[in-house]
Q: What sequence folds into this?
């Protein structure tokens, strides 16, 4: 049974763990574990797809474990064949070096630099002899490698598979041997490669690593995994306005909860609300995207940059919504005052589109972010047991959302 201390880390944003029982035993042992993830600098810049695994590593760092990031300066020359339908062109050493420079700078926007070890494959592979290569290839058969789904599809359809591509899983697997990894992290498409590392460790007398696989983040076009080669990525080093704008361009609204789950710290109960609201269409997807975009920009550039990016987007694309959102107070036709009890205020905020969920509405009230600007210019923070709202009042939520209260049955001003 999963220890409650590790419940979230082993469940949220996880595709598969091999094996969960053994990983839990290691976590409970009190030993500092060596956690590994490799990155091929096959293109410059890290995007949100990379961040999914890096965030998991950061969570394990906070438990006191050691993270080792492998820069795949050798495997990048081959190119990861995962999911590929054709042989990739080989990169030059200069291209790899240039790309790796940006990677090594951007890793630490997510993981704790002081608790991270950075290793390069060239530390061990540059010394490899032909004898060692032959010994490594003897550990696996062609039949085992062709059992890999993408290799099998290409072989069955007559598409070529180079011998160098078949070496890729062995080279990645040997990284685990070189650093004596306890756990390897990767996307679900890395399952075969990670299991090769597990097999190699056992064959070389080491305890087999556990494998921690995370889901693939779908890119902003809505149907393929995030990838720079597909031009559907959100780079973490991009300017705040660009990140915000790209999030707003996510084409498939059903992906919004996945982004919240995989690349933000928004509580799971709120994400469950978002899913239900999207299902019932009780919230505008754009409002959720704005929340998501702000969360992501804040994570990599800070709150001030996130506020500015949001203000810029709304000022440029939603000027009318930013400056004037008129709602009618839910009062009788002849009435001129609505009295709202504090316990009902969160629901009032959700119903009138000021908050995307009850949790968010309660948080805004607790933070003092909900204010009433009276017709005489005075401002009242919503904290009282009951609140009177009159025609002519304006509701301000946060810095950017306003609404003018008009009496029911009258035209908006």
A:
């Amino acid at each position: 049974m999963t220890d409650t201390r590790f419940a979230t880390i082993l469940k949220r944003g996880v595709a598969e763990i091999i094996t969960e029982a053994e990983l839990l035993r290691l976590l409970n042992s009190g030993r500092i574990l060596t956690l590994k993830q490799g990155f091929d600098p096959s293109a410059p810049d890290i995007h949100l797809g990379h961040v999914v695994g890096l965030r998991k590593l950061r969570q394990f760092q906070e438990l006191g474990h050691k993270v080792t990031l492998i820069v795949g300066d050798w495997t990048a020359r081959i190119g990861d064949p995962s999911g590929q339908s054709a042989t990739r062109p080989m990169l030059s050493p200069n291209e790899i070096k240039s790309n790796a420079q940006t990677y090594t700078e951007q890793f630490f926007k997510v993981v704790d630099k002081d608790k991270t070890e950075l290793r390069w494959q060239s530390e061990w592979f540059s010394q490899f002899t032909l004898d060692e290569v032959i010994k490594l290839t003897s550990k696996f058969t062609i039949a085992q490698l062709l059992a890999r789904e993408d290799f099998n599809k290409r072989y069955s359809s007559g598409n070529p598979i180079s011998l160098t591509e078949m070496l890729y899983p062995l080279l990645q697997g040997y990284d685990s041997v070189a650093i004596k990894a306890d756990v390897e992290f990767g996307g679900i498409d890395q399952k075969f490669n990670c299991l090769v590392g597990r097999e190699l460790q056992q064959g070389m007398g080491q305890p087999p690593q556990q494998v921690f696989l995370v889901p693939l983040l779908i890119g902003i076009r809505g149907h393929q995994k995030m990838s720079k080669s597909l031009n559907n990525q959100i780079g973490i080093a991009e300017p705040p306005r660009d990140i915000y704008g790209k999030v707003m361009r996510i084409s498939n609204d059903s992906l919004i909860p996945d982004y919240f789950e995989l690349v933000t710290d928004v509580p799971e109960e709120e994400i469950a609300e978002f899913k239900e609201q999207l299902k019932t269409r009780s919230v505008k997807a754009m409002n959720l995207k704005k929340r998501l975009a702000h969360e992501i920009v804040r994570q990599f550039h800070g709150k001030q940059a996130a506020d500015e990016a949001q203000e810029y987007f709304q000022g440029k694309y939603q000027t009318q919504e930013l400056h004037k959102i008129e709602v009618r107070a839910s009062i009788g036709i002849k009435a001129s005052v609505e009295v709202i009890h504090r316990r009902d205020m969160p629901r009032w905020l959700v119903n009138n589109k000021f908050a995307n969920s009850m949790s968010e509405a309660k948080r805004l009230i607790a933070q003092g972010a909900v204010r009433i600007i009276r017709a005489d210019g005075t401002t009242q923070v919503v904290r009282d047991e009951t609140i009177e709202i009159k025609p002519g009042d304006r509701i301000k939520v946060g810095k950017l959302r306003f609404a003018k209260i008009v009496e029911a049955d009258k035209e908006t001003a």
Remarks:
- Residues 163-179 form the longest helix (17 residues).
- The chain is about 45% helix and 15% strand.
- Residues 270 and 359 are 6 Å apart (CA to CA).
